[in-house]
């Protein structure tokens, strides 16, 4: 068994008790949302319309479909990539290599789907199977996390994540012990973060749109907007796939239940909530309002992409002409921090852009219900918490220089507010 790390990171998420509560609460919330979205009243805060029995949740076909989907995405991951990128330096000074072919996987999935649909594949029927599919995905996430936990017990100490090896099995199962679990060159965390869940999300959105066509003859403008905005977000993530290698999830967090469930179940089945809502609660949307919503999404995307690209370009090559003129602070690690451009506006401009987009994804659903705004509420909480975790890590990495950055750029996410 791998020894525990010398210096243990402080526990997050409320320790073992918080982790245990989240492991129950997250799947329960996901099923609540799935049930409520199709109910007449669609009340986010009310009780679910009914409690489904096992026969409504369990379907071997749904399990088979989920496993086939994972198999297809794994096969696409293994196809030759246009580029192989190196990750950040690890504790043993090595760097892992990652295939950059996520966008190719999206395009090939779309082509296969197009072929399937022209051969009569009833994609809309997927929208009737969301409950058993979500159940199967949750089951897979639990079993997968257990296997990951067992695997982590036999890896050397340097392969463990800084946060997920507290010695408490519940906490470590939740957060993930091993930083980069792999079999040969197949990296499970990197694969799950970007492929099955994100592509699954847009697939579910499309299925809901097809079902709307079946029911009402044509897709509504609101459904078009939600599908379009979220496809742009997923396409962007896969186009800029290499940038995920510098996120907290890849660099810092282990691969445990939180990310396995988040990637495989939470993202596809809760992030598609607006499209689910629209299928059962059609909303009128005029062109002027639709134009305003498109503008909000465009502003959000502009900030999100501008900020993420600026940081990624700077981290790759600080002398790149696109960032060379920006003002910086030097740190004791030899790395620099940007204090002008997007990163001089607030300390997390990318979160601000992401939140503005989240608002634009909910607005097509009107203002009669709180339910489609769940993503915005959850995402605000997630990013506020994530920002605090990142600040803590940056303070540890950069010490005084980070204090100086906070003095120069006092707002975290929203200028003059937070
Ligand atoms: N849709 C979703 O569910 C989610 C989306 N996201 C999105 O993912 C993206 C990535 O987010 P995340 O990984 O949390 O964090 P960031 O991309 O914001 O990365 C934070 C890191 O950036 C570096 N950094 C911070 N400040 C500066 C600066 N001034 N100059 C240069 N480098 C700096 C630090 O790392 P270092 O110095 O070591 O480089 C810091 O740890 C965001 O756009 C976020 O909105 C995130 C979570 C969920
Ligand atoms: C369910 C729990 C409360 C928490 C689970 C969190 C995960 C769902 C998210 C953690 C970080 C994520 C990122 C993206 C999706 C959601 C998760 C996995 C991301 C891939 C979305 C697309 C973006 O462009 C991105 C920057 C690549 C994102 C990276 C972080």
Please explain how this structure is put together:
The protein is mainly α and 418 residues long. It folds into two domains: 18-41 and 56-282, no CATH class; 286-417, no CATH class. It contains 16 helices and six strands. The strands form three sheets. The protein has a two-stranded antiparallel sheet. A hairpin with a 2-residue loop joins strand 3 (182-183) and strand 4. The longest helix is centred in the last third of the chain and has 30 residues, at 287-316. It is globular, with a radius of gyration of 22 Å. The protein starts with 14 loop residues before the first helix and ends in a 10-residue tail after the last helix. Residues 1-7 have low confidence and may be disordered. The structure holds NADPH dihydro-nicotinamide-adenine-dinucleotide phosphate and the ligand CC(C)CCC[C@@H](C)[C@H]1CC=C2C3=C(CC[C@@]21C)[C@@]1(C)CC[C@H](O)C(C)(C)[C@@H]1CC3.
Summarize the structure.
Helices cover 58% and strands 4% of the residues.
Give the count of structural domains.
2
Query: How much helical structure, as a percent, in the residues?
Result: 55-70%
What portion of residues belong to β-strands? under 5%
Count of DSSP-assigned helices: 16
Pathway: Steroid biosynthesis; cholesterol biosynthesis
Protein name: Delta(14)-sterol reductase TM7SF2
Pfam families: ERG4_ERG24 (PF01222)
EC number: 1.3.1.70
